[in-house]
Amino acid sequence: MSTAPIPATDAGSPSPAATAETPRRSARRKTSHLKEVPQSRELRDSLRRRCEEVAARLDKSVPLTKDQMEQVARRTLEEAGLPEGYVGWAMVMLSTAFWKDSVAATDPSRRLFLLPHCLKHAEGCPAEYDQFGMDCKRCGACSIADFRSEAEARGYRVLVAEGSPVVMKIIVSGYVDAIVGVACLNVLEKAIDKILLAGIPCMAVPLLSSDCRNTSVDEDWVAEMIRTEYRPAKRRTRTYVHLMRAAADLFQPESLQRIIPPLRCESIPELPAGDDPLAGVDPIAATEVIAYDFLARGGKHSRPFITLAAYDALTGDRCTGEGGEEHTAEISDSVRRAAMSIETFHKASLVHDDIEDDDAYRYGQPALHHRYGLPTAINVGDYLIGMGYRLVSREAGTLGSETTADILDNLAAAHMRLAEGQGAELIWRDARDKRLKPIDALKVYALKTSPAFEAALYSGIRLAGDASGYVEAIRNFSRNLGVAFQILNDLGDWSGDSDNKLMAAGDVLGGRPTVLWALALAGLDEDGQNELLGTVAEDSPLSDAQQVATVRRLYERSGAFDAARRLVDKHQQRAEAVADEIDNEPLRRLLYFLVDTVLERPSEAAPPVVPLALPS
After folding, report:
1. pTM for the whole thing?
2. For the structural domain made of 240-399, what CATH number should be given?
């Protein structure tokens, strides 16, 4: 397991909490017992002051990980003689104190004030909702309107909503640079990984309960937080926000138009919804138009971000530090096109995957083969592959022939491995014998998912210079990250995915091989195995709902879900071990960041673990 130091600043003698080396804790843990709120105001005030004193001695040059923050919170509670149950609450106080200067250095017009629905009075609330949250009518029945009015008077953008996805979307879109908010500890726990690890300044006041109806908060703390006065920062904490924005911006229509000018159209038309989206489009240009539309449609853009961030890590780490926005703008179009090529290959694979699996939706809209027909979708996927290679090959004059050849060779190898993995999946899907060993499922995963991470990392490093010293480490890291990511994706398939396919248990209904299926077969007796195999037999009398219910029951009986989560832990630990050995500190930090964000997962019940005490 890796360790990451938490150094102190130069001011004063550091406490043990500020100098500890914090083990990265990969294993799933039950965290509900760590979300108690101190009941008395006196105790909350006292613990808050302690957290502010500890945070003042922490090195603020880089964001703290969630594990680091937890270890500091635990030591702070130990020194105060307070119970472990306050860990979550103390983490929020520490984080708020850690980021206070950065929030203060953000103009109020660039701050987002986030409020929860549950502060409203549930009975008779006249507010309406849209995709971004609640539109408060300022009826005077609760404190939301008061908080909102003051925040807006100071220039804040205000949102009444829950959860981190919409907040991350707003941040990455470039509308705001810092967040202040109110939420229960459950919501704050879910948000802390993505928002804080990315280096987004954030302050919060926890709700006094998690009942989700008519709850309360220390209102004077909220008012104090809103009134945080603007003052220039003495120092800046490193952040990936500018690189995230740069990656997302690559696929905005205006950026696509500038960086990869279309060959058949003077400008890229916006395709309307409806039965005939290509009405009026020149047939020769139609493939290009659909491809550009699909590139701009959605996605997390994690692969081009990885390429840009790896490139930056090897060229001075300037985009994450002071003046990061200006340095990000200086990245050449040649590097941007290489980063975009990874996304075009990824999008091509999604088009073809959706066809092969006959998935109905992608990014919350009909999949391309449902919208335009099967032949057109196949052709668009092929077009995107050609576009990906062209984005790199045309840059040989700028990047140099050797650099271009190395990147193209790596991309081709990744493309072939991905096709091998997909081919193995299709052959298993169409076979009559549905038995599968876990090791074979993991081999498919390593081929299908890992190459994209490897290609993105390698391209970024090779764009910066000689990558030969990193090849083996990148391959091992990507293999373990990709396998863990795919297992988490399989687990998520049992709850649906609002960003993607919108249907739970799609892998089972689609007949795709998964490690869950293999683990269930390995964990069941002969009768259980036969029952599981019978659910996907051609002559099975089960409806889709009965099939899913039966498979879920057998998965639970076999322990497949828990075994899969343990596999995630194992591969995450292996990825972290590779990161531990990277000498380049910015690159090592990026790999840790990828582990913590790509392998994001909710806290789940698990066997208790021994708390990790901080050394004195």
Report:
1. 0.84
2. 1.10.600.10
